Amino acid sequence: MNLEFTQEEQDFRDEVRAFLKEKLPARLSDKVRQGKRLTKQDMEEWHAILNEKGWLAPHWPEQYGGTNWSVMQKFIFETETAMAHAPRIVPFGLSMLAPVLIKYGSEEQRQHYLPRILDGTDWWCQGYSEPGAGSDLASLKTSAVREGDHYIVNGQKTWTTLGQYADWIFCLVRTDSSGKKQEGISFLLIDMDTPGIEVRPIKLLDGDAEVNEVFFTDVKVPVENLVGEENKGWTYAKFLLTYERTNIAGIGASMAAIERLKHIARTTKKNGVLLADDPLFAQRLARLEIDLENMKTTNLRVLDAAGKGGVPVAESSMLKIRGTEIRQEIGALMRRAAGRYAQPFVSESMEEGYNGTPVGPEWVGPVSSQYFNNRKLSIFGGSNEVQREIITKAILEL
Amino acid sequence: MDFAIGEDRQMLSDTMSRFLAKNFDWEKRLKVIETDTGFDRDLWNELAELGVLGALFSEDVGGFGGTGFDIGTVFGEVGRAIATGPFLETLMAGRLLAAAGETDALESVIGGEKIVTFAHQPAHDAETGEESDVTASGSGEDWTLTGTKGVVGYIGAADLIVVTADDKAFLVEAGGEGVTVSDYKMVDGGAGGELHLSGTPAKLLAGVTAEDIAAAEAAGIVALSWEGVAIMDQLREQTLEYMRTRKQFGIPIGKFQALQHRMATLALEIEQARSASINAAAYFDKPERDRFSAAAKYTLGHVGNLAAEEAIQIHGGIGMTWELPLSHYAKRMVMLGHVLGDEDEHLSRYIALMQAA
């Protein structure tokens, strides 16, 4: 056993660091570090920089633009970019749809859609959840009825993240209601400009609107936009969700956040005592750091096993649960560190170039908003309770 | 990066596992823990012949292992069988014998001819309510020790005792002048005792420093972490099996969501503890040793208690019985937290290391 990076892995890490130092614009990393709102243009800018380098889609096969990196290289890349406060890569096209197209789509679909994901032509969003189908996703009702060369789609999707920017949506739709609910679902690609689609923003508890409702009224979708076979969509959907979960632990983001939290704890006094020296605060921080350090090794073990051909079903759910719990606890400690200054809500201070007089310590602006926004982490991608079901199912074999 | 245990260690692990399964089954263990010494000397000698003790030490001092992962491999098997015997004492005392170049004494320990124990932690003083420790006086080759050490593992069976005092280490012959032992059984099946020294002549283990003692403690924590994770695995497997077969309200209790979620959380925590034990072994000979050692012992205590308590709770009444092996695993698991510092002490230590950084 050896937990050290090999020389090759160290060289790779140095290469990633050099690239980030040269190409990651300070304007963007500053915004990420300070928790300011990223615009569509910000996200597209970083997407284009990575695409130019050829590092945008590490997990794709090389023939479609992947990097042929080992699992360890992908881990290094993810943690280094997060530690450098790079903007997150919008995952819907790159990490969710693309693996499905590569595994289950037609060659025409791959040739058409994959290059457009890479060069940023198409912004994708995810049409999964519905008002009556959250954790119980297979209960979805949005219907697609075949009429000649088209499907006619009617229904409603919800929690569609960044749908307001999207050119396309990949949707789970019901094409058969006669049998088991999992067996009548199909996977459909829909142009957001098609008549009959309406997007309405949902204002969330932090005051922002990153998610939307999407309504479909007699939307005509060409049959060639079906991925794989009709009524087999549930298989593709589950494949996509597994993909989503292995990257959901967010080790790099947590490592970056905990460094920032420790810096704040060492420089912020409450009642005359540095937070780092406050026994209760120090204890929560230490537990958090140990948990993260343990999880980093757990994650590496899972990657090692996956690299050797294993299918870590229970383990990826464990990573999702603990990864999100850690991120939420970091947010809770940031809020705790802010003390009374967690209360002021100066929304404009979260915009780039805000010049107003800061209220409280310079870092407190987005703290409460992030804490509340982070409630989503244990809900989306399959709630943490659903993950526990998956774990027990895998280990109990009952 | 590589998480494979390696061929040699796998062989050692298989050998030890087969040997213990054959020679230390449940009936045997129940008999052994009723004896005064708390372990079987013949079995101990056979384990020594198999090379189990040699794996704890490096080649230059007569062993053939000695890395964090070698220690972990041996103690993983100790945990799986909840074997009793002075494994931890041999590891820790043996390292100090090695540091002092006492190769003859160490050889007799590795070969099983002599039993060594490690008298390291202070005793409780009933008069003052405080901890009281052994002090050393003397110089050169002429030293005596006075005072008491508390809860010294397997002291009743020991031929040699390595005693720490004033950041030094000494070798004391059992049964020698000024050595009194009051021994007892332990909650988890082994044995221990209080060691009283009164002007006891002792041999200074020359060259042993406070750092050597700290390294021995770190080795002990690697050992306990791997032993603990192996016990957690047993607790988990036995509890899962019970959830599959035990029926209430007409269905296996594993169908109940309240139990499923508790089990899922426990399984997750056990993986975290496994990672902590791997970290402790990997950083055992690196500058970050103490941070990962403290993190591992904290994690072991925290998850170990959870594993023991949940396993008993999910079993219900039967989990409370002496008859069920599970209860013995649970006891050993919880007691590991009382060796070399509990989770709170190591969390405090971790915080102090962070604050000093």
Automatic annotation (TrEMBL), chain A:
Domain called Acyl-CoA oxidase/dehydrogenase middle: residue spans: 125-219
Keyword RNA-binding attributed: no
UniProt-recorded Gene Ontology molecular function terms: flavin adenine dinucleotide binding; oxidoreductase activity, acting on the CH-CH group of donors
Keyword check for Flavoprotein: yes
UniProt superkingdom: Bacteria
Cited InterPro entries: Acyl-CoA_Oxase/DH_mid-dom, Acyl-CoA_Oxase/DH_mid-dom_sf, AcylCo_DH-like_C, AcylCo_DH/oxidase_C, AcylCoA_DH/ox_N, AcylCoA_DH/ox_N_sf, AcylCoA_DH/oxidase_NM_dom_sf, Mycobact_Acyl-CoA_DH
Gene3D superfamilies given in the database record: Acyl-CoA dehydrogenase/oxidase, N-terminal domain (1.10.540.10), Butyryl-CoA Dehydrogenase, subunit A, domain 2 (2.40.110.10), Butyryl-CoA Dehydrogenase, subunit A, domain 3 (1.20.140.10)
Protein name, entry field: Pimeloyl-CoA dehydrogenase large subunit
Family, as annotated: Belongs to the acyl-CoA dehydrogenase family.
UniProt cofactor(s): FAD
Keywords of the record: FAD, Flavoprotein, Oxidoreductase
Positions of the Acyl-CoA dehydrogenase/oxidase C-terminal domain: 231-396
Short name of any one Pfam family annotated for the protein: Acyl-CoA_dh_1
Segments forming domain Acyl-CoA dehydrogenase/oxidase N-terminal: 6-120
A Gene Ontology term for the protein's cellular component: plasma membrane
UniProtKB/TrEMBL annotation, chain B:
Domain of life: Bacteria
Keywords assigned by UniProt, alphabetized: FAD, Flavoprotein, Oxidoreductase
Annotated InterPro entries: Acyl-CoA_Oxase/DH_mid-dom_sf, AcylCo_DH-like_C, AcylCo_DH/oxidase_C, AcylCoA_DH/ox_N, AcylCoA_DH/ox_N_sf, AcylCoA_DH/oxidase_NM_dom_sf
Entry coiled-coil feature ranges: none
Domain Acyl-CoA dehydrogenase/oxidase C-terminal residue range list: 224-335
Domain Acyl-CoA dehydrogenase/oxidase N-terminal: from-to ranges: 7-101
Pfam family, one: Acyl-CoA_dh_N
Entry GO MF terms: acyl-CoA dehydrogenase activity; flavin adenine dinucleotide binding
CDD domains for the chain: ACAD
Cofactor(s) demanded: FAD
Family designation: Belongs to the acyl-CoA dehydrogenase family.
Family matches, as PANTHER family: ACYL-COA DEHYDROGENASE, ACYL-COA DEHYDROGENASE FADE28
Protein name as annotated: Pimeloyl-CoA dehydrogenase small subunit
